Each structure stands twice: as C-alpha cells, then as structure tokens.
Amino acid sequence: MIFYLSSSFSKKSYWEKYLFSYNWNCDSFYISEKLKNMNLEKGNQIEYDIYLKGLTEETIRKMSADLGETERMLNHRLQSLEIFKQMAMPNFGPDISDLDFDNLVYYAKPKTWTDTYANDWENVPEEIKSTFQKLGIPEAEQKYLAWAGGQFDSTAVYHKIKDTRANMGIIFEDMKEAVVKYPDIVQKYFMKVITPADHKFAALHGAVWSWGTFIYVPKGVKLTQPLQAYFRMNTVAGGQFEHTLIVIEDEAEAQYIEWCSAPKYNSISLHAGCVEILVGKNAKMRYSSVENWSLNTYNLNTKRAIVEEQWLMEWVSWNLWSGATMLYPCSVLKWDYSKADNLSVVLASKNQNQDVGAKVIHLGKYTSSNIISKSISTQGGISTYRWLVKIAKNAEWAISGVNCDALLLDDKSVSKTIPVIESENADAIVSHEASAGKVDEHQIFYLMSRGLEEEKAMSLLVNGFISGVVKQLPLEYAWELNRLIELEMEGSVW
Questions:
Q1: Could you say which DSSP state residue 390 is in?
Q2: How many Å separate Cα 102 from the centre of its chain?
Q3: Burial readout 258-296 (b: 16 or more C-beta within 10 A, e: otherwise)
C-alpha cells in the first residue's frame, strides 16, 4: 500500500488548473455564534479514549498511529500539513476569520468503540445510538438496516451492506477499513481527484482526515436502492474530516446519500470533508447530501467528480442551519457526451451566511450540464449562489443551462447570485436565468381563507417552491426535509 504526494501537486494537468483557479471576490459578512433550535441542545456526554486537540505534527502522528497507518500515509499527512501552513485563507465568501485551528479537536474516538465495530444496529453502544435516535435518523436505518453506515466524531460506529449486494462485488466500507482491505483500488484514486494543493482546506483535510466512506461498484452492476451514511459531530469545538471515495465502473449505476449533523455549542466547530467520485463510461452516479449542521458549525466541504464518456453525474444538495457554508460541488466533463446535473436547496435563516454553488468544467465534445438552485432567506439570513461554467477550447458544441431562483421571506434577508461563464469555444451554448422575489401575500391570504394558519400556509408555499428538488430524494428523506421547513417557518412570518 503506497500513499504519496505526487508531482501533480505543483504541475497540474489541463483540467486541474481550472478547478480552483478562479478568484471570486464578494463582500464578507460577520457570522454570529448564536445557535439554532433544530439540533440537540448539547452533545451527548461521551467518554473518549483518544481526544486530540490542536493542529500540530504531534497530533497527526498520534492520529496516524491509532489508525494503524503506513509510513507513507503518515508522510502524506505531514506534507499536507506543510502545504496548509503555506496557503492563504479564502478571500471571498463568509467571514471565517474567527476559526481557531489550534483550538479544534481533530480526532476523537469514543471509549466504547472497538476495532470490530457493529454490523448489527442493536449492538451499537447505547450512548451513541441515542444521539442518532434523537435526530430521527435511525428510522430509515431500521427499515433498511443492511444499507447504512454511521460515523460518530472521528470513528465509524456502524456499517453494513446486504450480503446479496456484497456477492455482486459491491464494496461499501468505511475508509479506514478500505485502506487495509483494498489497497490497490484506494491507492489508485485516494486524493487524486482532489489534491492537498488545491486550496487551504483541501490541504487541511489531507493532513487530518479520518474514516468516511468507500464505495466500489463493478462493471455492469446497477444499484436500485441508495447506499446511506450518517455523520455526527459531537465534541465541543470539534472537527470532522471524513473522506468519501466512490468508484463506479463502466456501465454501472449507484446512488449514495449522506446526512450530516452537529449539536449546539458556544464554540465554533469545523466540517471539512472531502468527496471524490470517479465513474466509468456509460455509467450513472447520483450523490445526495443533507447537511444539517448547527449554527456554531462552519461547513467548508470539498466535492468533485471526474466524468467519463457518455455518463451522468448528479449532485443533489441540501444545506441547512450552519452558521457559515462554503460548498461548490464540481464536475469535470472529461470526455465526449458526458453530462452533469446539479440540484441544490439552500436555507439561510437568522445569523446564517450560506455561500454555495456549483462548478462545471467542459473538456469533451457534446458535453452538457444543468445547474438548478433554490435558495430561501428568512429572518435576515444571507444566501449567495455562485457558479462557474468553464468551456475549454476543444469542448465543441458544449451546452450548459443555469437556473437560480431565490425566495425572500422578509425585508431583512439577502439573496445574491454570482454567475461566471468562461468559454473558449464559439460553438458553445450557455443560458442563465435568475429570479428573486417574496412570497405572494395574496396566496397566503387565499390559503388562510381556506382554514390554514399563517405559518402553515407559509411552509406549504415554501415546500412548493422546492418541490422539484425534494422529489429527487427517497420518501423518508423528503418527509423529514418538509418537516424541517415547517419548523423553520415557525416564528418567521411577517
């Protein structure tokens, strides 16, 4: 098993140089630490065997030793740390200057965790299980017990896949186990789509990543049910840095859903995960995420997919509650006739700055992409949607369509759309539509005249506004998200 920093960190290929090269400038906003009511009042009282705080070489060495890693992986982490130290903070988006890297917890392993983690939900430690139960998440898991994985802080607590699917050659493991069991596959792809040199938080991830999800679907295998994973950050001033690596071979299909959450604390927490996706020819991949962080959490995630010939990459993203978010899923349409869709819903409420978007890099001929965004701002929340469509010189007859709709629920809230189009090919077709408006008071009045209370009428109209994205999720997720919207509307009407 070999992990190393390749020369591509300094000498990037043609497509790599566009992924984070564009320098976006916009106003910065102060993010308050005031907390939301949507998450737990506080984290469960968990005892930890290992609790590593502070971004130091000692922390990384202790983490690597506990994970049982090779010397080459340790060197990867240490080199990533040096890259992190040399890179500047982002010069756009929300104000995250109060993020104290030396005060974060980078690795926390619950005392009740063992190397042989549970493959039966009943065997998961009660203090950990209760956290998921309070969130309402295990309901879906208990129905589809064999399809889910769970991570608590820095360690996996549950992971299982149906035997019938495993017999088809499908691999669904946490990343720590995958590094040991499938070294050839992991070595080939790990942090190759996203490298530590891409930006400061990618470098941080390369230094302190722990656990996460590894999915491998062999050629011709088509999954009809989604694989699922839940990530819970529980510690005070905690950091979660899970790594998701998905490899879909030629003519295969798969769906994957991540649900993330964190409790309320009076100190800032950081989520800086990484998602790398590679899918072969004539294949299809849908990645869905519901990021339900608390207001003390800064969500600075990095997601990117490499799209081969004649295949489809779909991103379905929900971003809720976090105090500050910077998230821009990227699709690189590397070969001819490849396609990418990006659907997102963003909710920015009181003391929230949601800065999200999408990137699509068209390199192949006859490539196409669609970007659809629905943003909701209420109680003074700030929602910014920025997107980049890059069409290379050789991307003949590339087509891209962008539609951004914003809904403002009061006069204090803010919504922004920042489009960037860079085309080097005269045959390319790019369209952009954007709209912003308030909820129609006449519609509210009509619904109230039919017996609905004002808040219920508001939530009904908001759910109608985002219904096109909601229907892309399984029923249990759609129901939960509709309920979250209803709760958010309580107290937000004019």
A1: E
A2: 24
A3: bbbbbbbbeebbbbbbbbbbbbbebbbbbbbbbbbbbbb
